[in-house]
């Protein structure tokens, strides 16, 4: 009997240890609704609401139906960055045609104590990740000398392809502001499905503005990163998506022009 009790206790200890390990080492999963190639072809209507999006993550980015500005999410809060450069809390019933979300669990953190450009930060992230084949979620809280952004303008049907829709997109510059950058570094092999390379959105600490990041210079800040090992893609069931041309010959060039 004593031996049986000891074995039971050992098994329980192993189970508890495994549960603690799983709790602190759970894989980060990237949830994505639709494809970037769908946006490029003009698929600007989706059925996933902001409320539903938050069931799949507390951190991410994307856009809103009708290509109405930029979406930024962190700490389970979602903001709508509009074409006039302003920022507003997103409503739960708003919908998105394309977004990427994850539950952010940073495993790498660094204080950035010296001025750095976006290229400097990207090089550091690449070094810390150690592989071009992995997804990475990136958050920077910092003081910025400047941040240059752009925001896609709301479209009306019949929808034009994205490169035509953003031909006159507004640009903004935020000087000497504190804020948060949220985004992902994605491998080259997902170009078209997602955006290869860096895709980053910005919002000011006072939540009055932001947009899709074009370039920046950081004075000082805090970098947090999490490696993503799983990806789930939720494809739309709309007629527009079913009829979209998702593999054009110039897809790579189009995405670089649209998101660069």
Helix/strand layout:
Blueprint (H helix, E strand, L loop, with lengths): L1 H24 L2 E6 L2 H5 L7 E2 H4 L5 E5 L6 E5 L2 E5 L5 E3 L5 E2 L2 E4 L5 E5 L3 E2 H12 L5 E16 L11 H4 L5 E16 L10 E8 L5 E25 L4 H5 L7 H9 L1
Parallel strand pairs: 1-14
Antiparallel strand pairs: 1-8, 2-7, 3-4, 3-8, 4-5, 5-6, 9-14, 10-14, 11-12, 11-14, 12-13, 13-14
Percent of residues in β-strands: 35-45%
The count of helical stretches stands at 7
Q: Compute the average pLDDT.
A: 92
In the CATH hierarchy, the architecture is 2-Layer Sandwich
Work out the radius of gyration: 20 Å
Estimate percent helicity: 10-25%
| Sequence stretches where pLDDT stays below 50 over 5 or more residues | 1-8, 17-24
The helix/strand class is: alpha+beta
Terminal-residue CA separation: 69 Å
Write down the overall geometry: globular
Oligomer: single chain
Give the total of beta strands. 14
* Largest beta-sheet characterization: 12 strands, mixed
Q: Can you identify the CATH class?
A: Alpha Beta
Let me know the CATH homologous superfamily: Hypothetical protein, similar to alpha- acetolactate decarboxylase, domain 2
């Amino acid at each position: 009997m004593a031996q049986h009790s000891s074995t039971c206790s050992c098994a329980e200890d192993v189970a508890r240890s495994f549960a603690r390990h799983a709790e602190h080492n759970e894989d980060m999963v990237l949830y994505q609704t639709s494809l970037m190639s769908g946006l490029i072809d003009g698929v600007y209507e989706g059925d996933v609401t902001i409320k539903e999006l938050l069931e799949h993550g507390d951190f991410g980015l994307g856009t809103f139906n009708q290509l109405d500005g930029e979406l930024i999410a962190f700490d389970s809060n979602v903001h709508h960055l509009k074409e006039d450069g302003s920022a507003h809390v997103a409503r739960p019933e708003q919908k998105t045609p394309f977004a990427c979300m994850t539950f952010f669990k940073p495993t790498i953190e660094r204080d950035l104590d010296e001025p750095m450009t976006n290229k400097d930060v990207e090089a550091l992230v690449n070094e810390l990740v150690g592989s071009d084949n992995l997804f990475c979620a990136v958050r920077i809280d910092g003081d910025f000398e400047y941040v240059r952004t752009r925001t896609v303008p709301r479209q009306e049907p019949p929808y034009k392809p994205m490169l035509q829709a953003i031909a006159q997109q507004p640009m903004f510059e935020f000087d000497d502001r504190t804020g948060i950058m949220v985004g992902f570094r994605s491998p080259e092999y997902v170009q078209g499905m997602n955006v290869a390379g860096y895709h980053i959105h910005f919002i000011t600490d006072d939540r009055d503005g932001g947009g899709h990041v074009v370039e920046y210079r950081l004075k000082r800040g805090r970098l947090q990163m999490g490696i993503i090992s799983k990806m789930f893609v939720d494809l739309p069931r709309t007629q527009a998506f079913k009829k979209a041309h998702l593999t054009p010959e110039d897809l790579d060039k189009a995405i670089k022009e649209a998101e660069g």
